[in-house]
Amino acid sequence: MTCHYCRLVCKRFGKHRNGLQRFRCKQCNKTFTEDHDRPLDEMRLPLEKAEQVLHLLLEGMSVRSVERVTGAHRDTILRLLVLAGRKCEHLMRVKIEHLPVRDVEADEIWGFVGKKEGHKQPGDEAYQIGDAYCFVAMERNTKLVLAFHLGKRSRVSTEAFIGKLRYATSDNHFQLSTDGFQAYPSAVGIMLQDRVSYAQIIKYYGAPRDGEQRYSAAEVVSTEVVPVMGKPDFRRVCTSHVERQNLSIRMGMRRMTRLTNAFSKKWENLEAAYAIWFAYYNWCRKHQTLRVTPAMEAGLADHVWSVGELLGV
What we know:
Blueprint: E1 11-15, E2 21-24, E3 31-33, H1 47-58, H2 63-70, H3 74-95, E4 103-113, E5 130-139, E6 145-151, H4 155-168, E7 174-178, H5 183-191, E8 196-205, E9 220-229, H6 240-252, H7 267-283, H8 294-297, H9 307-310
Parallel strand pairs: 4-7, 7-8
Antiparallel strand pairs: 1-2, 2-3, 4-5, 5-6, 8-9
Helix pairs in contact: 1-2, 3-7, 4-5
């Protein structure tokens, strides 16, 4: 190690608490640490504890529960969440591009930031407060999550989501299935008209029974498949797999658990939590049916990744 200022060879000067060798210049007495990667940027949290924190968050624990178990401060946990979310979002964007797919299912899952849309006050008109819908696209055969987008349930958010789906898929023709949300046909027509056969599944719900309006979903009494574009194969029109992904999200992300106080207070935190979850689902978590991870089934990985690999360790 050479001193950055005096250009003299430094002498070993013990080790840092993270195990890295330190050096000290004999002339100016400044200390330096050996060159090393910084997967956590400026955070001083040990990598082993960072992996433990993320693993507990991905297993459905709340931030304060993780704080009690690991001893890491909740502010540190949230900073790690945002940092890991940026890395995972970059990983998804780099690894999942122009993939050949056969059957794609898309759906939205509801959540909220700060407060529900109906509870907003006149001073809460900010975009990042209230209802937050995560649009999710999954390849049916490999179970790979191709794209996601967090936004309002609007035409603008739908077009942004379909644009991400276009980036993730190749020019090969595939079949797309969605629910009956009215913004999908125009967005798909603009972004994916050259490569999809598209159909919607329209579900009709019955009236909820007495006492079930708050805690139970209304019963589906009938469904209708509506072809929208191309020549969709009605036998392959389905959204069950991506809807099952929604259940996995509710079980694995504490902030998405219904009827609790574990909701997101910041839009940035919710978006980061989604990015980590989808990267973990694709690369680290074995699918019970496939017996491998979706990334391995899609040919994007040759082994089950660790949480540390998501951080670039």
